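To close the section, here is one more complete example, presented without commentary so you can practise reading it yourself. The ligand is 5'-deoxyadenosine.
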Amino acid sequence: MKKLYIETYGCQMNVADTEVIFSILLKAGYERTLSMDEADVIMANTCSIRDNAEQRIWGRIREFSVQKKRRGEVLVGIVGCMAERLKESLLKSGEVDFVAGPDAYRHLPELIAAVRPDSPQIDVLLSRDETYADINPVRTDTNGVSAFISIMRGCNNVCSYCVVPYTRGVERSRDPKTIVREACDVFSRGYKEVTLLGQNVDSYRYGDVSFADLLAMVADVSPELRVRFATSHPKDISDELIAVMASRENICRHIHLPVQSGSDRMLEKMRRRYTREWYLERVAAIRRAMPDCGLTTDVIAGFCSETEEDHADTLSLMDEVGFDWAFMFAYSERPGTLAARKYPDDVPPEVKTRRLNEIIELQGRKGLESYRHEIGRTHRVLVEGPSKRDPSQLCGRTGSNKMCVFPAGGHKCGDYVDVVVRDCTSATLICELTI
Ligand code: 5AD
Ligand code: SF4
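Output:
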C-alpha cells in the first residue's frame, strides 16, 4: 500500500477538507502516515489568505523536494486554496507533481495515478454544487472528543480584500439530513462536540432550512453533544439564530464575529456591508439574550488609505466591545481581489506594523480583563486532554470558548467536569474541581 502524508495549513475548513481527502484516498487503497520520511505521496493542503501564508508553503515545497531528491519515487501534491489561486504556475517550479483545487478532491485517485515524471497533473475546476455530502471524513484529531463538520462551501460575499471567493468558489449549502447523520455518527463513536463550519454560516440555506433551523436540528441530536459553529458574518447574524442559541444548553455560547475595522469608511471600502453602529447593535443583541456569551473577532490593520482616525475608530470599537480574543493581521494585498484592482496598498509597512502592535496591545489588556472577570465563577468544561504545560493536569474549554486547566481528579477525555476559576492568564483560566 502507498503511504500518504498530508500537512494542513490555514483555517478549520482546511482541516475538515483534509479529512475528506483522507477518506477518498484511503478508500482508493492508500494508507495514512504521520511521517513525511516514509511517505510515497506528500501533500500540502494550503492557504492563500495572506502573502506570508503562501511564503511558508513555498518553504515547505523546497523541503518536499529534498525528499524527492533523496528518495526518488516520492510524489508531491499541492491542494487547497493556493492550488486554486496559482494553478499551472505551481507546476512551473518543477517541484510539484500534482495540483488540485478545493472542489477536485473526488478526482485525486485518478489524478495521482496519471502523474508521470514528464507529465504533472492538474485539476482546479470549481463547482457550483460539490459539498462532499456523502463522504464520511476520516477524523484526524487525536483526542476523539471534538469533530469538525463542514456545512457549506465557498463564499458569495466578495469582501474587497479577500481571496476566498476566488479560491473556494460560489457558496453552496449541504443537505441538512447528511449533516445531522454525520453528527449522529460522531456522537455514537464517542465524540462530545461538533463544530459546524462555513465561511459564512449565517447564509446557510437548504430549501426551507436556515442556519438557525440547522443548529437546532444538530443540537437536538443529544443534550450530551455540544455544538459550536464558525464563522458568523455581522451583516447576517439573525435574531432567530440568537434565540436558538439561547434556547438550548448544549449550543456553546460563543460567537466568532469578525469586525475587521471600527471605521465606517473602511468597512465600506472593504465591502463588509454593515456599519460600526450595526455591529455594536448586534453585539448588544447577543449580550441581551446571553450575557455570558463569549465574543471573538478578526481585525485588519492598515487597509488601503486607512488614516490615524480610522485606526483610532478600530481601537475604540475594540475597547467598547471587550473581545475575549482576537485574530489580528496587517493588511496583505491579494492579487486579483477587488481591493488589489481598485485601491493602492498605500499604508507604509512600518505604519501597518505600529497600528497592528497597538491593536495587539489593547486586545491583550481587554482579553485579560475579560478572563479576570471569570475568577470565582463556575463552568462546565469538556475535557479535551492533558494540559500542555503540566501533563498531570487536564484542559478543556468553557462553553464561551475559554481554555481551562484543572487537576485531573480521575477524569478523562470526553468527560464533562464542573470547575471553579481561581486565577488566569490572558489565554487560560486556572481552575479547581468543584466538589
Ligand atoms: N490581509 C490581511 N488579513 C486578511 N484576512 C482576510 N484577507 C486578508 C488580507 N488580504 C483576515 C480577515 C479574515 C481572516 C480569516 O483573515 O480578518 O476574517
Ligand atoms: Fe486560507 Fe481562506 Fe482558504 Fe481557509 S478558506 S485555507 S483561510 S484562504
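Once you have examined the C-alpha cells, check your reading against these statements. Residues 349-372 form the longest helix (24 residues). The pocket of iron/sulfur cluster (ligand 2) is lined by residues 10-11, 13-14, 47-49, 80-81, 163-164, 167-168 (CB under 6 Å).
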